[in-house]
Design goal:
This protein is an alpha/beta fold. The chain has five helices and eight strands, in the order αββββαβαβαββα. The protein has one domain (26-170): Glutaredoxin (3-Layer(aba) Sandwich), CATH 3.40.30.
């Protein structure tokens, strides 16, 4: 009996180790399968316009979030880290809050958490254009040519998401009309 239990334990430990130690690769779509990211032009907390077009030639991480979303609060520090770490390589992070009360709750949140990337107030309609907001947060990677390369509902796997960003940052800009 003791021998069987130790074998079962060894198998369980091996399964747990293998499932937690391997980071699943990001699901970056091949270039022909990518569709254009919906454009937007929204105001940030300083009443300055932030638009997708102003970041032409950059890899953009668009994050739909809300102050009431626990998963969002988990991801925001990761995205702040990515914004700082990969800015020189061409990454831009844009947070799009869908809080119903707008800046009333969002502005204190971003100030308290010292969010280091642009944050705007969006709508569910904009979220639907990006594939829907069924499970918050929703994160979208946009390639240098303005096409959606990956999207994820719910909390991302930090390592896999970073791997996907690096993959996009290493891709050449395949749209001659964009600098």
């Amino acid at each position: 009996m003791h021998r069987i239990n130790s074998r079962i334990l060894a198998v369980v430990v091996a399964i747990v180790f293998l499932s937690t130690s391997a980071v699943a690769p990001a699901e970056i779509k091949p270039v022909p399968a990518r569709r254009a990211a919906p454009g937007f032009s929204l105001k940030n907390q300083n009443d300055r316009t932030v638009s997708l077009d102003q970041f032409r030639g950059k890899v953009i991480l668009v994050n739909f979030w809300a102050t009431w979303c626990h998963g969002c609060k988990q991801e925001i520090p990761w995205y702040m880290e990515f914004a700082k770490k990969y800015q020189a390589s061409g990454l831009v992070v844009i947070g799009i809050s869908i809080d119903d009360d707008g800046w009333k709750s969002v502005k204190p949140f971003i100030e308290e958490n010292k969010v280091n990337y642009p944050v705007v107030i969006g709508t569910e309609q904009l979220g639907n254009q990006y594939g829907g907001l069924g499970s918050m947060p929703v994160s979208v990677l946009v390639d240098r040519a303005g096409r959606i390369a990956d999207s994820h509902s719910g909390v991302v796997d930090k390592g896999a998401w970073e791997q996907g960003m690096r993959q996009l940052l290493n891709e050449p800009n395949q749209d001659a009309s964009r600098p």
